[in-house]
Amino acid sequence: MAHWLVKSEPDSFSWDQMVANKTEPWTGVRNAQASNFLKAMKKGDLAFFYHSNIGKEIVGVVRVVREAYPDPSDDTGRWVCVDMQAVSPVPKPVTLADIKEDAKLEGIALTRQSRLSVMPISDPHWKHLAKLGGWKK
DNA sequence: GCCAACGTTGGC
DNA sequence: GCCAACGTTGGC
């Protein structure tokens, strides 16, 4: 199973809203690279939910419940979205500062490509981040 | 097809 | 609020 990280600004869509909504269409991705990652997601894949701008930390884990389909918020028909569901919060949120100073997380896309909103997370990185956050399945 | 101008994201 | 990074647009 592949692992991912998705970003959201809590001002527009926060973890609390993610938890409150049963199923959330992950719409509005308008970047070719991020869109390709959305298309690669499989039902059941897990993703960290990261708060950008405010907090700048991983706050929860979500699951892909529907694979890529045309984004209803897109008029051009070029972009896709997936459906996500909250799994559980990360007990000890992992901050960007934590990630940056951790040698085991060197090369992670979050720090290399700060503007990318959907990115894959390697198995070793996923395990390490889960450990840092005290998150267990 | 190149590249300058511009817009957006996101860290600080 | 500023600015760096970087994607997109449009003139040539």
Automatic annotation (TrEMBL):
InterPro entries: 5hmC_binding (IPR052181), EVE_domain (IPR002740), PUA-like_sf (IPR015947), THYN1-like_EVE (IPR047197). Residues 2-131 form the EVE domain. Gene3D superfamilies: ph1033 like domains (3.10.590.10). It holds the Pfam family EVE. This is EVE domain-containing protein.
